[in-house]
Description:
The protein is mainly alpha-helical. About 55% of the residues lie in helices and about 5% in strands.
Amino acid sequence: MSIAITAGSVLAFGEAIFDPVALVQEFGNPIVLILGVATILIATLSVNVAANIVSPAYDLVNMFPRRLNFVRAGLISIVIGVFFAPWLWMHDAGTIFAVLGYIGGALGPVAGIMLVDFYLIRRRNYSLNSFYTKTGDYEYSGGWNPASTDSHRPGPHSRLRRRLRTLARPRRSGFPRRLHLVPGPRGIRLRLRHTDAQREPRTRRTRPGDR
């Protein structure tokens, strides 16, 4: 659909317009403009609700089945998502890649553990009924598999250690960098900068005739 719409923009407007918002603005008819904006809003909400709310809501319900239902867990997921302030990530491409790196460092080992367990340990043989019983083959120790949790720790920890070493790496001046909370009109941001006590003392330039 995206390829067809972009190709149609070349025929209609003489250039390839990839941004749907910019494409809608090219139409002079207000009815088309309203319908286009409504379509974009519905598509954005439907995709984000299915991808970013349903999954964590079910996870919270499984963690606290006696206290939460799907509606409450969904609202909690929305609140947590707002505190992450994803709209601030778009101001810095490096922040987006850093977040994707953290997600990959946490979920990459999970995929590896699942593949090894399915193909090498279980030999592609799972007991489906045991997935839905509390005292089945996959109960392990209180619902946790110690072998899998121990195998998962090195991945996120190594990513976090590399990030901390990057933050503590000295600048050219030889002083370490530190994180500071900087309030602003769009929220509180983290910045790396020197404190006053860490800055190098400035040397006064001598002029001819000064003693």
